[in-house]
Each structure stands twice: as C-alpha cells, then as structure tokens.
Amino acid sequence: MHTDTTIRPTDAGFDPSGSGPASMAAVVDAAIASGRATFSFEFFPPKTDEGEQHLWRAIRELEPLRPSFVSVTYGAGGSTRDRTVRITERIASETTLTPVAHLTCVGASVAELRTVIGQYVDAGVRTVLALRGDPPAGPGTPWIQHPDGLAHADELVRLLGSLGDFSIGVAAFPEGHPESVDLEQDAQVLAGKQEAGARFAITQFFFEASHYFDLIERAERVGCTMPIIPGIMPLTDIRQVRRFAELSGADFPQDFAERVRAVADDADAVRAVGMEAASRLCQELLDGGAPGLHFYTLNRSTATREIYADLGLADR
Question: Of 42, 89, 175, 208, which residue is the catalytic one?
C-alpha cells in the first residue's frame, strides 16, 4: 500500500471559487517544495458537443478523487485551441479542480500565443505546460514553424517567463523524442528547458518502469534536477493497445504483448490485463521515488478510479 504523501489543492491554499491565480500556480510549486507526490489527470478537447458532455461527466466523476491538478490538451496540430482554452476556463471557474493550461507553438504567431496566455491569466490559470507540439499533419511528418512563431519548447518557456510569474511544466520522453539524435541529446534538451525556466516535467506514457528511471539518471547527469512526473495511460482494449503503441513509438514489453494476444478475443480479459499492468507500473514508480503520477484519461473515469482504488489512494 502506498503511503499517503499527496499534495492536495487545499494544501496550497486553493480557492474553490477558482478566483485565486496565485493559489493555482502554487499547487505544483508546493509539491515541488514539499517533495510530496502529485496525482493528476489529463483530458483532451472533444470535437463535438456530445463529446464535451462525456468529458464533463468524466471530470465530475473524477473530481471527488481530489487530484493535485488536471490539464486539457490541444488537439493534433493545435487544431482545438479555442475549445481547449474554453474548457480550461470552465474548469477554473466551475469546479474545485486546479487546471494546468496546455500551450503549443504549432500554427501560432508570438502575438497569438500572448493572446492565449492572456486568456489563461484572466481565468486565473498560472500553471502552464509549454510544448512545441506535434506536426499538424501528424507524427512522422515535418514540423513547420509559423513564420512569426517559435520553433522550440524552451523558447515558449522563456516567453511565458517574460510575461509573468508562471509555474511552467514541459514534456519529457522516457524513450526519447522521435526527432532526438539519441537519448543523451534528448536529456540535454530537457535540461535546456529547465534552464529556460521550467519547474517540472510530465513524461510521454510508457510501459516499463525502467525507461522512466533511466530517464531520471540521464537527466541528473546533465544537471536536470526538476521533478519529472511519469505519464500513465491504462490500456483497456486491443485496438487501443495497438494504436497508441504505434503512434507513440513506445516500446511494448514482449510479455505484456503476449498476455494481450492470448486473450485478444475476450474484451473483458484484455481490459483486465491492461489494468493489472497499469496498476503494477504505478506502484513500481511510486515505490521507486517518482514524484507523482499523471493519468492520460482519454476522457473516461473508470480506469483511473479503479487504479486509485488498487493503489489505496481513493480514500486519501
């Protein structure tokens, strides 16, 4: 059973009305200062009104778990920026949750980025995850910089730092960014983001704890000491397993793949295999000293709630 050392919104002076910018920024910073674990959820902006209803159902079902913070991604290539901003604003104003804003360089001029940052500030959101973003045409295609925009995440970190006192997070890649020359160069890039002003990082999802701990060692060797929160994606159906492994380039453990294949015709059994693997990974990460867990929820609540129960976190 994992000992409860969780940083909760109330620990950082969170204002339930959503009207306290400083207190929102303090949540992640307080966790960094205290060394206590954070537990957070990530959602994506749906493309339809019906999808948004499903999203809000998941948010309300996960709210009682009292996560340290939640975040809402941009769609592929920054395609859902306006909806992302609107949902983040609603979370800040209508729930007891602390939102972390996503911001990417994709398809945006510096002037447009400043406008989005201003919208987040107006909503009381002062913790931002600064990302370069994926190419609009999808993984594996060239990334094209906006002619009046930024090229790299560290530039976005610096822009945020020049505009106010933000708690800034960035992305980390346990198995290396697809465009990195090698893992050592990838660690240097992460260290550069910290030097630019990042205070924490959240990783791409992965399937083996060793990939995360190897990343920590590489980062420390190049002077990157900010907390790196592992990203977790419970895989609960065979199509999901195949699709996300293919898109992310994540190394798929042979034993896990064999267990999934052995029950591929039984959806319930596939789900059970995926959930057991995710819970085991989470426990191994926490036992190894990870500063928290960040769940990629896919706008569903059931899997995350079950893992919380398995880890003994639901009643914390």
Answer: 42
